[in-house]
Design brief:
It contains 24 helices and 11 strands. It is an alpha+beta fold. The strands form 4 sheets. It has a 4-stranded mixed beta sheet, with helices on both faces. It has a 3-stranded mixed beta sheet with strand order 1-6-5. Helix 2 (19-31) packs antiparallel against helix 3 (72-82), helix 16 (341-369) packs across helix 19 (423-454) and helix 19 crosses helix 22 (485-497). The structure holds protoporphyrin IX containing FE (HEM). Residues 189, 221-222, 233, 290, 432-433, 436-437, 440-441, 444, 495, 500-501, 504, 566-568, 572-576, 579-580 line the site of protoporphyrin IX containing FE (HEM).
C-alpha cells in the first residue's frame, strides 16, 4: 500500500507544482462547499467522503435544484475543463492519501454486497440464461435490457457474467460521484484487458510476436492501469489538453470542415440528399480532421478519387475492424482461458492496424526530419523551397502535405521531446488516439446533425447564433467557437440523449459504499450512460430534446453535478475532449452557416459496439440556406 502512496505522491507533487493547480483547487473548493464534517468521519476528510448521499457533507443552497450550492452549469464547466488537472497541492495530496481499508462500517452500517439485488445467477454461466431469454434482450441494444433490469431490481443491481469479476451497475448520480471520488487517485478502468493481452502479455497464444517487441510489454494509456498508465498519462496530458496547442490546429481543422462542405455539395443528389454512405463520409472527415493534429498533416481522405486501398482508407477500415474485434473480446472473455477465435481476430486486426498507423506516423516523422528550418512545422514545408528537393516529399500527394502556416513545434514533436516518453510510448499513444478518436467524433457529429434535423427550432437557433457570433469569416478563431453558447448546449444535449460512450467503468481499489451496500475492493462498477442520462428523476423532461437545460440558470438542469459526464471525470477522463470539441464545432459551424439539414427517414436509435453508433444510415438532406 505504501508503494502506491509513494508513487502518487511523487508524481503528483511534480505535476501540480504548476500554478494552475492552485487556481483550479481554489475554484473547485468554492464550488464544492463542505458544510461540516460528519461527526464520525474523522478519518476521511469531506473531500474523500464515501458515504450515503443523505449524509453527504456537501449541502445545497436553499432552493437550488442540484445537490450543490453552485448553479449547475458553472460547476459542470469547471469539472469538464479542469477536473483532470485537479491533482492538488502537496498538502491536499497527502491529506487525501487513502489506505485500502474499508470505510468504518459503524458510520453507515451498509448492507453486505451479498444482499445486492440482481438477476438470478448460476454457477459458471452467471446470469447469461436470464439475459438471453429476457424479452428486452437485444445484443445490439443492450441498454434496453439494462433498463428492464433496473425496473425490476432497482437503481443498483448486481449482474454476474462468466469470465468477468463481480459486476455492479449503478444508476444514481450520487453513487457515480462516490465511485469517481473513491477511485480518483488510482482510476483502474477495466474493459481493455484483451488489448493489454495482445500488446504486452504474450498475445493471443502466448507465442512471441513481432509486435511484442514494438510495445515492449507496455500497452499504452487505453489499456494500462496503475503506475504504468500514469507514467504515460502525466506526460501526454498537458500537450494534448493544452488549449494553446489544440487551438493551433484550428485553421487546419477549419480547412477540413470547409472541404467537407464542398464534398457534401458534390455528393448530394437532385433532391439535395446525400447517399447512404454518409456515415462512412463522416468517418473520413473524422480521420482527416484528427490527422491534422495527431499526424500533423492532411491525409487526403476527402479527395474525390481516394482509393479504397490507400493508407487513410485502410486505416479507417482497420480501425473499425479493431474496435469490432475488441467489442467481441471484451464481451465474452473466454480468451482468458484458451486462445479463442475472437482474440485471434483481434490480434490480426491489431497487427495490421498498427502497421498501417505506424507507417502513417513514420511518414510524418520523415517529413519532420527533412524539414529544413527548425521551428517550421511540417505543415508549412509544402510551401518551402527545400520541400521539393526532398525525395520523401516527392512521393507524397500534395493533398497529404498541408498548409497551416503555424511556426510552433507540432504535437508529435512536442511529445517526442517530452522527458519520460520513449518513441514507442509516443507512437502507441498516437495509435490509440487514432483508434479512439475516429468513431467517437463521427458518431457525435452525426447524432448532433440528426437531432438538429429533427428539431428545426433548435436548428434555427444554432444558425442564428452562428450568424451572429461567427458570421462568415475566412478563418475560424477560438473566440468564434467559445462564443457559441447555445450550440454548446445543443452538443451537450446531444451527448445526453445519444451518448457515444457506453458507460464509465471502474474497478474498486477499496471497499466502497454504493447505494447503501458495501461493495468490496476488486469488484467492477459500471455506470451505464444511457440509464444515467435518461432518468426523469434526474433530468426534468428527460425524453425531450431540450438544449436549454444546459444554459445558465435553467430550471431544466440536471439535479446533480455528476448526472452527466460524457467525457467522464477526474485524472482518467477523456484526454481527447478538447480536440473533439474543436473538430465537431468547426464542422457544425461550417455546415450550418450555409446549409439546412433535414432527415426524412425512420427514427435513428443507438446500437452498441465498443461505443454507441447510429442504427441506420444518416441520409440527410442538405439544402442551401438562402
Ligand atoms: C465526442 C467525442 C468523445 C467522447 C464522448 C469521449 C469520451 C470518452 C470517455 C467517456 C472516456 C473514458 C474515460 C474514463 O474511463 O474515465 C474516454 C477516454 C479516452 N478518450 Fe475519449 N471521447 C471522445 C473523443 C475522443 C477523441 C477525439 C480522442 C483522441 C484524440 C479520444 C481519446 C481518448 C483516450 C486516449 C482515452 C483513454 C484515456 C485514459 O485512459 O487515460 N477521445 N473518452
Amino acid at each position: 500500500m505504501w508503494e502506491w502512496q509513494g508513487w502518487w505522491k511523487q508524481e503528483c507533487q511534480g505535476y501540480v507544482s504548476a500554478g494552475v493547480s492552485a487556481r483550479v483547487m481554489w475554484s473547485a473548493r468554492a464550488y464544492y462547499q463542505p458544510a461540516e464534517r460528519h461527526p464520525h468521519n474523522t478519518k476521511y476528510p469531506p473531500s474523500t467522503y464515501l458515504g450515503d448521499p443523505a449524509h453527504s457533507p456537501y449541502v445545497a443552497a436553499p432552493g437550488a435544484n442540484s445537490s450543490y450550492a453552485t448553479p449547475y452549469l458553472e460547476a459542470y464547466n469547471l469539472m469538464e475543463e479542469n477536473a483532470d488537472v485537479i491533482f492538488e497541492s502537496e498538502v491536499m495530496m497527502s491529506e487525501r492519501m487513502y489506505n485500502s481499508e474499508a470505510i468504518p462500517s459503524d458510520v453507515h452500517q451498509p448492507r453486505p454486497a451479498s444482499q445486492l439485488p440482481g438477476p438470478r445467477s448460476w454457477p459458471m454461466v452467471g446470469c447469461l440464461p436470464y439475459m438471453l431469454t429476457h424479452k428486452a434482450f437485444d445484443p445490439q441494444r443492450v441498454y434496453l435490457f439494462w433498463e428492464a433490469v433496473r425496473q425490476e431490481f432497482g437503481p443498483i443491481f448486481r449482474k454476474d457474467m462468466p469470465g468477468h469479476p463481480y459486476l455492479v451497475f449503478i444508476t444514481q448520480p450520487e453513487d457515480l460521484e462516490t465511485l469517481m471520488r473513491s477511485t480518483m487517485y488510482n482510476p483502474l478502468r477495466p474493459g481493455m484487458a484483451s488489448l493489454k493481452r495482445i500488446r504486452s502479455d504474450g498475445g493471443a497464444d502466448g507465442d512471441d510476436h513481432v509486435h511484442d517487441h514494438f510495445f515492449q510489454g507496455k500497452a499504452g494509456i487505453l489499456a494500462e492501469q496503475g503506475q504504468e498508465w500514469w507514467r504515460v498519462r502525466r506526460c501526454v496530458q498537458r500537450p494534448v489538453t493544452n488549449p494553446q496547442i489544440v487551438h493551433r490546429y484550428l485553421p487546419q481543422m477549419d480547412d477540413v470542415a470547409k472541404q467537407f462542405v464542398d464534398r457534401i455539395r458534390r455528393m448530394r443528389d437532385d433532391n439535395d440528399e446525400v447517399p447512404e454512405s454518409f456515415n462512412s463520409e463522416l468517418y473520413k472527415w473524422a480521420l482527416e480532421s484528427l490527422g491534422t493534429i495527431a499526424l500533423d498533416r492532411r491525409l487526403g481522405c476527402l479527395e474525390e478519387d481516394v482509393s479504397p486501398s490507400s493508407r487513410p482508407m485502410r486505416l479507417i477500415q482497420l480501425a473499425k475492424q479493431l474496435l469490432g474485434a475488441l467489442h467481441e473480446t471484451e464481451n465474452v472473455k473466454l480468451w482468458q482461458y484458451f486462445p479463442t477465435a475472437s482474440i485471434r481476430r483481434l490480434q490480426e486486426a491489431h497487427q495490421v492496424f498498427t502497421d498501417v498507423a505506424l507507417g502513417a506516423i513514420r511518414d510524418t516523422e520523415r517529413l519532420l526530419a527533412c524539414r529544413p528550418i527548425r521551428g517550421h512545422t511540417l505543415s508549412n514545408t509544402h510551401a518551402h523551397p527545400f520541400a521539393s528537393s526532398c525525395p520523401f516529399h516527392q512521393n507524397l500527394q500534395p493533398s497529404e502535405i498541408a498548409s497551416s502556416g503555424t511556426e510552433a513545434p507540432s504535437l508529435l514533436e512536442t511529445l517526442l521531446a517530452t522527458p519520460g516518453l520513449s518513441r514507442e510510448d509516443v507512437l502507441t499513444f498516437l495509435i490509440d488516439m487514432i483508434a479512439t478518436g475516429i468513431d467517437t467524433t463521427s458518431h457525435a457529429v452525426g447524432n448532433m446533425l440528426y437531432l438538429l434535423a429533427r428539431n428545426p427550432r433548435a436548428q434555427r437557433e444554432v444558425q442564428r447564433e452562428i450568424d451572429q457570433v461567427v458570421g462568415s469569416p475566412d478563418r475560424l478563431t477560438p473566440d468564434h467557437l467559445s462564443g457559441l453558447t447555445y450550440t454548446k448546449a445543443v452538443f451537450r444535449e446531444t451527448l445526453r440523449m445519444m451518448p457515444v460512450n457506453v458507460g464509465i467503468v471502474r474497478r474498486l481499489n477499496r471497499d466502497t459504499v454504493l447505494g447503501g451496500y458495501l461493495v468490496p475492493k476488486g469488484w467492477e462498477v459500471v455506470a451505464p450512460t444511457m440509464l444515467m442520462n435518461h432518468q426523469e428523476s434526474v433530468f426534468p423532461r428527460a425524453h425531450e430534446f431540450l438544449p436549454e437545460r444546459f444554459l445558465r440558470g435553467s430550471h431544466l438542469a440536471p439535479r446533480h453535478n455528476f448526472a452527466f459526464l460524457p467525457f467522464s471525470y477526474g485524472p482518467r477522463m477523456c484526454i481527447g475532449r478538447r480536440i473533439a470539441y474543436q473538430e465537431i464545432f468547426s464542422l457544425i459551424v461550417r455546415v450550418l452557416s450555409v446549409m439546412e439539414v433535414d432527415y426524412k427517414y425512420e427514427d435513428v436509435h443507438l446500437v452498441n459496439k465498443l461505443s454507441y453508433g447510429p442504427s441506420s444510415s444518416l441520409r440527410f438532406t442538405f439544402t442551401d440556406r438562402r
